[in-house]
Amino acid sequence: MTAFELDPRLAADTLPLGELGLSRLLLMNDRTYPWLILVPRRAGLAELIDLPAAERHRLMDEIALVSTALRDLARPDKINVGALGNMVRQLHVHVIARFTTDPAWAGPVWGKTAAVPYSEAGARDMAERLAAVLGDALRPM
Fold this sequence. Notes:
alpha+beta, HIT family, subunit A, 5-stranded antiparallel beta sheet, 3 helices, HIT-like_sf, hydrolase activity, HIT-like, HIT_Hint
């Protein structure tokens, strides 16, 4: 069995936040949208159906936990959740806070505008705020 490794494209576009029970939690490095990504720490997965049933349920619980945290922090008009995998085959789930005022509303966020990276202080602030809301569910990597 091969060990879990984060896809290099995900690693390049995100900032690590920590580990949940099943998933690594990442912050998309684009402050235009409050945007989190969950990546189950299992090697070789491409689809949700590749996870055993118990782990699919666990992933859904983690999606709900992260969605609630993002909603509480950002107060968006809508939370988008998606597992597309067209560009990055590795199973990962996007959780994006959307606002009627954001530049991509009401379409998809991909390719609408160039990413605006977080400053070091902005990324740290977002990570600390999320950690406070997620509490013991989020562990250091």
